[in-house]
Amino acid sequence: MQTATDAAVVYTVGHSTRSLAELVGLLEPPGVRELADVRSVPRSRRHPQFDAMALARALPERGIAYTHERALGGFRRPQRGSRHRGWEHEGFRGYADHMASEEFRSALGRLQLRAGDHTVCVMCAEAQWWRCHRRLLADALLVAGFQVLHLGLAGEPVAHQLTPFALVGADGTLTYPAPQVELELEA
User: Which of 25, 68, 128, 138 is at a distance of 20 to 30 A from 153, taking alpha carbons?
Assistant: First the structure.
């Protein structure tokens, strides 16, 4: 595993209500060369500048490639008997379940290869990374040895820290178990 000082960096961003120029303004300073769209459905009725077709046309003009990684997209349903009960929100629990799938692992591997070659930023719609599946994706990238920086909030990029209740197995598998209840024993 690489150390934080020599690890390749992956950025994350949520397009939110920004203009395309504002998004590009976030991507250019760190030298992002690829925007990997991790929305399950890469469209927006409210913000058509973030439709996949619009991004695929506009970003290359600015030296940024556009890719869509549907297999890394959110809106997943939790599996019956999920081991990820630490997440109260079903969407996060469902995404954690999805992270164990071959579809996810394959897409994550492709993203890691590209991120080892050039600067990649993963994008979804939600501005706040901690309220988005990018949080779990960032955990997976961190465990794989990447440094993850979240763009778009006030100030400098925010370095991702592993979710506090996440457990990392010897093989790098992430689980998010329910908190253990401590019982008090009477003397």
Answer: 68
**From CA 141, how far away is CA 112, in angstroms rounded?**
8
**Greater pLDDT, 147 or 6:** 147
The H-assigned helical ranges of the chain are: 20-27, 52-58, 90-98, 102-117, 134-143
> Cα(10)–Cα(146) distance, rounded to whole angstroms?
7
Contact 137, 38 (CB under 8 A): yes
Q: Determine the structural domain holding residue 31 and report its residue range.
A: 9-175
Structural domain includes residue 117: yes
Provide the pLDDT confidence category of residue 2 given band limits of 50, 70 and 90.
very low
CATH code, domain with 68: 3.90.190
> Can you read off the two tokens belonging to residue 29?
């300073």
Q: Indicate the pTM of the whole model.
A: 0.90
What average pLDDT does range 58-65 have in this prediction?
97
- Rounded CA-CA distance 158/30 in Å is 13
